[in-house]
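Section 4.2 – Deliverable D4.2 (structural model, holo form)

The reporting period included a commitment to supply a predicted holo structure for the target in complex with 3-methyl-2-oxobutanoic acid. Inputs used:
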Amino acid sequence: SAEALVLFGLPSGKNISLGSGMFFSILELEKVKQMQTVEFLDTTLRDGEQTPGVNFSIKEKVAIAKQLEKWGISVIEAGFPAASPDSFEAVKQIAKTMTTTAVSGLARSVKSDIDACYEALKDAKYPQCHVFIATSPIHREFKLKKSKAEILDIIKEQVSYARKYFDVVEFSPEDATRTELDYLLEVCQTAVDAGATYINIPDTVGFTTPTEYGAIFKHLIENVKSDRKIIFSPHCHNDLGMAVANTLSAIKNGAGRIEGTVNGIGERAGNAALEEVAVALNIREDFYQAKSPIKLNETVNTADLVSRFSGIAIPKNKAVVGGNAFSHESGIHQDGVLKNPLTYEIITPELVGVKKNSLPLGKLSGRHAFIEKLKELDLTFDETEIKSLFAKFKKLADKKHEITDADIIALVSGVEIENPEGFHFSNLTLTSNSDETNTAEVFMTNTDGEEVAILANGKGSVEAIYNAIDKFFNQTVKLLSYTIDAVTDGIDAQARVSVSIENVDTGTIFNASGIDFDVLKAGAIAYVNANALAQKENAGEMGQKLSEKDF
Ligand code: KIV
Ligand code: ZN
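Output (structure tokens):
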């Protein structure tokens, strides 16, 4: 019972699953007593933002952080404050906003980075500082040009320095899995002796395997000495597709905290997907004997929000949150699931918060019904945003008979991703010429509501529209990819166009998307949004991201 759990010093509630019976043997209670809750550190806003093309605005970062807190994340690595003023500001705002979740900032092993973390995290209720330096032979020789002993000295000095400002310091030996094990032990011991509480073991290049990584954890946990409680954590990249498996292996071998990102976004092949780890711990609690703090029914909301803001669609076959995760195609499977869902379904849609389609809205639905629907879908907006959303809803309702939950979410996404930079795409017209070329007239509106019209030709309609937008921005960008998907069902579906462009002058890649009923308009919005980001960079207003060159 709940009382018995409290007696054992355990939290009561739905996270405790003791099986289906009403009475538990002492053995079962002992098992629960031993079961640890693993802390979850989310680095979507730092490592996740290192995904090529992903640039969260400060507003988006704060919105993601709020959702992460709601999801049950223990610590948010909110950014790298020394990287840029924008990055600093984002960490600062998140630090102010979080009430139960700890907030961490990343710092290279240099004082100025740690100072920036301190300044950005001053207002956090539970601040943490994450200090790192590379330790593997290849990084020591080619990148840092430092000896083993020199690196140990830096760790000692910088971790101690961070401890002057922060009670909780995490230390990471970058490229730990390609570091000699005896030296890695020395590195970790040095960081612990200098005051670090969390030792993170990054598999920076996604090189390790579950068995090998588990053995590293076991070795370090058994051999690092301290009179304080030291917590070890995995941080896995997915280059060989083993990030989640490696993370789980670390848990099995004693890790007390894990690091990862929502939807597994991150540099190259990304990081361990936190939603997959959380659900694996839930479904295979029997094996891992560990729990996550995650409120699983907020998983889909969290994954969708990050997908919308990152412009990275969730693959249909993605574990846990992919569109096909709960669909059963083969006849045998369908038959089995109808008889008993457990025949082919180990994860129920309800567990991860898949929403059932409730009553659709329509042309006659008023503002009140619309606001109620937003509440039901857990979408929060201020008055001005609701005003603009409702106007768009009315426009959509003129075109579409039934407005489903997916339509509302698409509508909201469309508004969220609209370029806020003083001007936006407002309309376009297309003419087909007798020589088989097209002429596009693109209308852009500035903050004062003034419209500018730009004309351009192209071989196809998209080319004509994009040439017009190029004329408007007058900067050199290269279109790298253009993808269309239907975000709602049926012939009258809303389309999302996602583009990736390169700012030719700087080599930076920007992703952006647009949602509209009309696929050409969705494509125009996406291209305008991507160009606006490149323009911001050219104006020197774009914060630097933590990329290889900064390490
Ligand atoms: O992958 C990595 O090594 C990192 C460190 C900065 C922790 O992200
Ligand atoms: Zn990383």
